[in-house]
Amino acid sequence: MEKITKDAFCVIGKAGSTKDGEGFVQKLWNEANSHFVEVAQLAAKNADGSLKGIWGAMTDFSFEFKPWENNFSEGMYLAGVEAEISAVAPKGWKKWIIPGFEYLKIPVQAPDTFEKTIKYLKENNIPLAGAVQDFTEPKTGENFMFFPVACNDSKRKLIQDLKSTTNQFSVCGLHCEYCFLSEWCAGCKSACNMCSYATLSDDNTCPNVACCKEKGFDGCYQCGKIRGCQTGFYSPDSDGANASKALAILRRDYGDKAVTAALAKMHEKYDFLKLQEVLNADIDKAVEQLKTFAETGAQQAFIIKGNAE
Length: 309
Ligand code: SF4
Ligand code: SF4
Ligand code: SF4
Fold this sequence. Notes:
There is one protein chain. By secondary structure, the protein is α+β, with helices and mostly antiparallel strands. The protein folds into two domains: 2-152, Multidrug-efflux Transporter 1 Regulator Bmrr, Chain A (Alpha-Beta Barrel), CATH 3.20.80.10; 170-297, no CATH class. The chain is 31% helix and 17% strand. It contains ten helices and eight strands. Strands 1-6-8-7-3-4-2-5 form an eight-stranded antiparallel beta sheet. A hairpin with a 6-residue loop joins strand 7 (133-136) and strand 8. The model is unreliable at 299-309 (pLDDT under 50). The structure holds iron/sulfur cluster (3 copies). One iron/sulfur cluster (SF4) binds at residues 170, 174, 176, 179, 181-182, 185, 187-188, 193-195.
């Protein structure tokens, strides 16, 4: 039994879950292996040119990399290869950032390796700090299980480093500073966009981000069709469409400082997680509300440019 520390790392692979039924893990491996050529150039390499690792990465359904639920019987799985953090998953593949942990690295020598190790951890009062990860050493083909026994802060640090180089005004109008995913998502246009509108789409790109890129816009705030748009986060079933459109319109008409001031004031007044709850009923009313918040909340004077719409 070896104790190792591994900082946060990226795996690109084929994703599925226990909800997909019996044999889903093997199916994911078949799919990943038969299309490996699509990700081969993204794989992280050792100094000698060999692949760093082949991973059967696991997480609970909350995507917090906690152990599989219901006595380790339910969770999500990614069959793939360790890749560089900056890698972008091709269409049909998913990219996960596994948090940093101290692990017990156990060779898989028998079918009951998992159960035996869990028993050992219990008997020695060692709590499992996260989901167990399957690892194959590419050079030798040896299989190991990585049992996380202590967290480290490397994933948070990695995301915060990436954030410092990206714009925290999202493409659709939301502001990353006030987002519940802020700790783990580096922003819409970053290599670690963890917004579900990106991670759940087949090509890993949020439709609003893709549309703005195609049109050459920095964000939807620059688009004349924003009010009637139903793309991505603006779709009728999104609970934040009007709120994010109002923020984008405020940004367009009054600038970044107004948005920042309005959000700061709103969050001072309301103890809430989702600004949708306050702003989503009507775009015009929301813009008016935001303007009031901006005017009362601005620490520095900002110039209202006038409502151009
Ligand atoms: S989910 Fe969107 S708003 Fe939240 S941190 Fe990520 S990019 Fe920013
Ligand atoms: S919905 Fe799209 S544009 Fe909006 S925060 Fe998420 S990734 Fe960014
Ligand atoms: S059409 Fe919609 S998604 Fe595309 S840039 Fe305009 S507002 Fe954004």
